[in-house]
Amino acid sequence: MYSKFSFRSFRRVLGRVIVTRPDKLCKVRVIRMQLDGKLLRYFNKREDVWVLDRELQCKEGDIVLYQPIKNQKEHVRVPYAPWGTSREIAKILYKVGETFDPVTGRRCFGTKYADEDTINPNVNYEDDRRGYYQDDTSYLMRNQAKKVIEDYKKKDNTEKKGTPV
């Protein structure tokens, strides 16, 4: 029940760059849905494809569109793939580090926020100097917790002063 996808049926394919090499090649991972004949359900199937990057502009983690090479005389041999490659990068859709989370507005690298490791409780993220809005709920929760603790300490100190022992 296994059916191999033919790349000729697709003009442009979306994938993520997982390996880049200095000889104008990069490996792109494509995730496709494949039907399991016994369960009659679709499951993710990963395919890794060598793609020609003419300007060496791709980095690992970029989301790219690739297409067949327009001039078929330019067939590039790849040492790791016995059949070579006949595909090239058409467009870089999302570069690593230049994507923003639409909900919080924070810059992210893949699935992690760029400032996740360096969140400083003393920084006001609403008027950030970097030019984009950051709304950090953990920062707001920390400030609320600090206020509650300070109020509790003030209340505790006033109770101790008012009652002689």
Write out key terms for the chains shown.
165 residues; alpha+beta; OB fold (Dihydrolipoamide Acetyltransferase, E2P); 2 domains; five-stranded antiparallel sheet; three-stranded antiparallel sheet; 8 strands; ribosomal protein; structural constituent of ribosome; ribonucleoprotein; 28S ribosomal protein S17, mitochondrial; NA-bd_OB-fold
Concise account of the structure shown:
The chain is an alpha+beta fold. It has one helix at 137-162; strands at residues 13-21, 25-36, 41-52, 63-68, 87-94, 99-100, 107-109, 112-113. The chain has a five-stranded antiparallel beta sheet, with no helix packed on it. The protein has a three-stranded antiparallel beta sheet with strand order 6-7-8, with no helix packed on it.
Biggest sheet, spatial arrangement of strands: 3-2-1-4-5
User: How much helical structure, as a percent, in the residues?
Assistant: 10-25%
CATH homologous superfamily heading of the largest domain: Nucleic acid-binding proteins
Mean pLDDT: 74
Structural class: alpha+beta
- Examine the coordinates and then state which fold CATH places here, giving the name of the CATH topology of the largest domain: OB fold (Dihydrolipoamide Acetyltransferase, E2P)
CATH architecture descriptor of the largest domain: Beta Barrel
Give the C-level CATH assignment of the largest domain.
Answer: Mainly Beta
For the CA atoms, what is the radius of gyration?
26 Å
**Strand share of the residues?**
25-35%
Shape category: elongated
pLDDT below 50 for ≥5 consecutive residues: which ranges?
127-137
The structural domain count equals 2
**Biggest sheet character:** 5 strands, antiparallel
Question: What is the string of SSEs from the N terminus onward?
Answer: EEEEEEEEH
Helix count, DSSP H or I runs of 4 or more residues:
1
Number of strands: 8
Give the N-terminus to C-terminus distance in angstroms. Answer: 84 Å
